[in-house]
Amino acid sequence: MRKTLIIMPLLLLGISAAAQPKLGKADIDKVIAAMSVEEKINLVVGSGGNKSAAASATVGDFGALVPGAAGQTNAIPRLGIPATTLADGPAGLRIDPTRTGTKRTFYCTHFPVEMLMSATWNTALMEQVGAAIGYETLHYGADVLLAPATNITRNPLCGRNFEYLSEDPLLAGKMCAAEIRGLQSNGIGVSVKHFALNNQETNRTGNDARVSERAMEEIYLKPFEIAIKEGKPWTVMSSYNRINGTMASESKWLLEDRLRRDWGFDGLVMSDWYGGTDPVAMLKAGNDLLMPGNKKQVKALNKALENGTLTIKDLDHNVRRILEYILRTPAFNGYKADNEPDLEAHAAVTRAAATEGMVLLKNTMTLPLNGCKAAVFGRTSYSFIAGGTGSGDVHHAYVVDLIQGLQNAGFTIDADLEKAYRTYIKKKDKGSPKGLKAFFPIELIPEMPLDDVDLLALADANDVAVITIGKTSGEFEDRSITSNYNLTDDEISMITKVCGAFHSAGKKVIVILNVCGVVDTISWIESPDAVLCAWLPGQEGGNSVADILTGKANPSGRLPMTWPRRYKDVPSAEDFPDPDKISRFKSMKSMSSFVGINSKPGRTKNFDYTEYTDDIFVGYRYYTTNDVKVSFPFGYGLSYTTFEYSDPMLRGGSVFVTVRNTGAAAGKEVVQVYATPEKAGRPARELIGFAKTNLLQQGESQTIEIPLYEYKSGMSLIIARNAADPEPIKVNDYSLFR
Ligand code: BGC
Prior knowledge:
single chain, disordered N terminus, 30% helix, 6-stranded mixed β-sheet, alpha/beta, binds beta-D-glucopyranose, disordered C terminus, globular
């Protein structure tokens, strides 16, 4: 088929292949001029459609060169234009782990999800993880990684929050830029996604985000702006949703005016998979590449060229950007994938990174502990969740669960309890979902009832109890309040019963949250003695948790979003879908827009449209301004040591401060600088800079520079331990006083 497409125009033109201008050798204008209309259309429409997507729980799975990759661009060999491969995703390269005809495997490292990486507040570490993912991308033969994702975590129910970075645009933007730099240092490209305002999964391809210009500029576009300017990504992925009535992928204002003209982006924009409804409008708006590509789009473009609604000149704009992208790719530059990334070295990278992003939420004289006898509860302890579902998932070779992690660290696991759990899990586990269900987030089995377990005997026989609570989510669906955001009755009952028995024996209980995002804590957090949020920590998760429990690593993660007291306190609670009230299949209706069915905006609030009434008061901007109490504020996280700040100084657009480790363990501190505008209509606190110290030994100090973002003279600044810190240090006053 492809052969015919290539040979036909040649014959028609009556020219020999040898005389053709070749990409990279001839001037790009000459290459474009030599292209037939068919070839141009085949370049802007991806090569999709050659494989069924259902098996891989994601809509993208069209890589022919690299099996399991999300998509490919078409080759035009006569002009020296190779096919290029685009693969997911944010937590590691997503490709098929096995291939027909070979016994060899193609597993990739499952790194921590972006949410955890953001909780490190460590841009250098983010860059290092990005470099490792990029290395696997290159060595497995892909040209572009479809990541990072940097939509604002506006509401804790968004099913893809784990793939995103923060509720704060500065943290999200800086971490995103760092990841881009790391990834692209390998000579592969990234696609920053989903541009923009893809903040809910419910009806994601039809939903209209109705938002003020101010909220867009200050909150929702800001992380992208920072990422574009500081990370210089090769490509950007437009989002599925509408913005104030226009599909993001069809918005010239978004893709040309803001992205290209105002921020200087010089790369290509591709659609999200099957995104957009009108291919002509998309190309004209600056959405150059239609992914994964289908015949309907080819037909529509041909028709538009015939009737003049699309001109060759329009099309050439898009073609040029795609050719400029191809020129940079490993595929064009003759790179031959060896399929041999250093997975062992990367296992060490993911273990250390995961450890650094875990957040210690509570610790009443419990942690760190030495390896001892542990009774381990919770189904997830025996099957740790490495990452979320959908395109953000990675085909890993293994996952270190909590049991393994604790054993590796010298703990003795209660064998009878372990046996009871393994038997229960085997009985309940229905295996991996198939067909349509494979597209949706996995439903975990209920917790094992503890009625038949002698908890008092377990408390007697063990030194400590460890409970894991697991929650996962993924694209296509937002999180249920009752079963995903709130802990279920069986989970709470497990915590209560275990705490009752172990406390009566004078033993401590530790809860590990192996979760895809914010969960309710108010209903149970009084009971356990320590709580560690481990997020979805990648394939070495069990080892990373054990490193923290034993004190081998000192927790230095800080929350990249607020944990409210109750879901109803969330500023967008009323203006966000309630997934418990929407059937899966209604939510799935949006999938029909794959083929452009859902093209007319409907009238159902929070489904067809969502009003961003919270405006710029997202996350801590709302809670701090309105004095709303929260469970854990943005920027919060405990350590095994203490830090003292001294001599804050503002100089040349940066704050300098000396941080001293005054406690008994080596550790890292996250320094957070907030602006505290006093003007009405502005949030009480806004993060304006942050930095992480080196690992400081006991008594050691470091004077650290915190570059400020968009600092204006006269701003009043504070250094705070988190967004709700009641005793921050004033920067301006102090330096004036000195
Ligand atoms: C997701 C994208 C992903 C694409 C390709 C879509 O469903 O929204 O994030 O890159 O599939 O797999």
